[in-house]
Amino acid sequence: MSTQPSRHPGLNLGEPHAEAHSANEEFVFGFWVFMMSDFIIFGLLFATYATMLGGQAGGPGPDELFELRGAFIETMLLLVSSFTFGMASLALKYREDRKWLIIWLLISLVLGVAFIGHELLDFHRMFDKGGVPSRSGFLSAFFALVPLHGLHVTAACIWLIALLGQIAVHGLDHGVKISLTRLAILWHFLDIVWIGIFSLVYLGGLA
Amino acid sequence: MSHRELSAARARERATELKSYITGFILALVLTLIPFGLLAFTQLSRMALFCTIGLCALLQVVVHFRFFLHITLARNKREDLQLILFTTLILAIMCGGTLWILFNLYTRMLPGMIP
């Protein structure tokens, strides 16, 4: 991929970011271990959801509750935000000025917030149709899985806002660079979890 | 608003990485549009749909790992890759076990729970 041997998951910053580049190896690997534990949590919630699919207790099922259009919009928002965050990583790596880094980060933030907003709207519509968590085992499993992902996205957005604040106050010091590298991993990882959600929950439920 | 003074090697690296992100984005987009499109506009059987959705999802996960998280098969990345593979093994045991045990139980005692 590149001439430099890569030292950790995600985009490596490379030699010009000497301090952040060498510190990243441990920090990012530690964060990667945390991501993998998150991966297990989501994996088991997927398994729980699959075992609860039949437990609708006469309540509304996937056909009545899910809308393909909403799922598609959310998927696109998250996929594009993953790409724009990649562009932010590249801007961090190769540009001296902060302009493009901030622009790409802001675009990612807006897309992330739009995703959360749209997801909340979806949940609201589900509630209107009687799809509340306490209605059936199926809905409890759904609301354990999907909003947990939404909560992760919310946390990532808050983290991004905090980092934008840090950039404004401290500038691009190596602490901020390391945090941005880790947030990039979280951001891309959450998009991977969403692949599982839209495939199994939404597409599988509507097929 | 100019680039950092990039050496030729660095500029080449940047071009490669930019291309890798764009390739990843296009692949991910196609792998998303296929299952959504099939579900919305065709009348395939459920089984065919499930298989396509599952296959596209698996491929898209690999694409994201490769192009966005930069997990490759290169030698220096083995530690990360091993961690993913080990996590996947643990998940396969726990998820597989959960599904096996519970659906076996449903078949024997609660046929109504089988979707």
UniProtKB/TrEMBL annotation, chain A:
Pfam families given in the database record: COX3
The protein in question is named Cytochrome bo(3) ubiquinol oxidase subunit 3
Keyword field = Cell membrane, Membrane, Transmembrane, Transmembrane helix
Give the matching SUPFAM superfamilies: Cytochrome c oxidase subunit III-like (SSF81452)
Lineage of this protein's species? Bacteria, Pseudomonadati, Pseudomonadota, Gammaproteobacteria, Oceanospirillales
The entry sums up its family as follows: Belongs to the cytochrome c oxidase subunit 3 family.
Q: Report the protein's function.
A: Cytochrome bo(3) ubiquinol terminal oxidase is the component of the aerobic respiratory chain of E.coli that predominates when cells are grown at high aeration. Has proton pump activity across the membrane in addition to electron transfer, pumping 2 protons/electron.
The GO terms describing molecular function are: cytochrome-c oxidase activity
Q: Which GO terms describe its biological process?
A: aerobic electron transport chain
Summary of subunit composition and partner proteins: Heterooctamer of two A chains, two B chains, two C chains and two D chains.
How does the protein's chain sit in the membrane according to the entry?
Multi-pass membrane protein
Tell where it localizes. Cell membrane
Query: Which cellular components does GO assign to this protein?
Result: plasma membrane
Heme-copper oxidase subunit III family profile domain location, by residue? 1-206
Main localization of the protein?
membrane
Q: Which residues cross the membrane?
A: 27-50, 70-88, 100-118, 138-164, 185-205
Q: Which InterPro entries match?
A: Cyt_c/ubiquinol_Oxase_su3, Cyt_c_oxidase-like_su3, Cyt_c_oxidase_su3-like_sf, Cyt_c_oxidase_su3_a-hlx
Automatic annotation (TrEMBL), chain B:
Keywords noted in UniProt: Cell membrane, Electron transport, Membrane, Oxidoreductase, Transmembrane, Transmembrane helix, Transport
The secretion signal range is none
Q: Name one GO cellular component term.
A: cytochrome o ubiquinol oxidase complex
Name of protein: Cytochrome bo(3) ubiquinol oxidase subunit 4
Entry similarity comment: Belongs to the cytochrome c oxidase bacterial subunit 4 family.
Q: How does it assemble?
A: Heterooctamer of two A chains, two B chains, two C chains and two D chains.
Organism, by scientific name, is: Kushneria sinocarnis
Q: Which InterPro entries match?
A: Cyt_c_oxidase_su4_prok, Cyt_o_ubiqinol_oxidase_su4, Cytochrome_c_oxidase_bac_sub4
Q: What is its main location?
A: membrane
Question: From its record, what is one biological process in GO terms?
Answer: electron transport coupled proton transport
Name its cellular compartments.
Cell membrane
Which is an annotated GO molecular function term of this record? cytochrome bo3 ubiquinol oxidase activity
Residue stretches spanning the membrane: 21-41, 47-69, 81-103
Keyword set includes RNA-binding: no
Any one Pfam family match given in the protein's UniProt record, by short name: COX4_pro
Q: Which domain of life is it from?
A: Bacteria
Q: Which NCBIfam families match?
A: CyoD
**Role, per record:** Cytochrome bo(3) ubiquinol terminal oxidase is the component of the aerobic respiratory chain of E.coli that predominates when cells are grown at high aeration. Has proton pump activity across the membrane in addition to electron transfer, pumping 2 protons/electron.
The record gives the membrane topology as: Multi-pass membrane protein
Q: Which residues form a coiled coil?
A: none
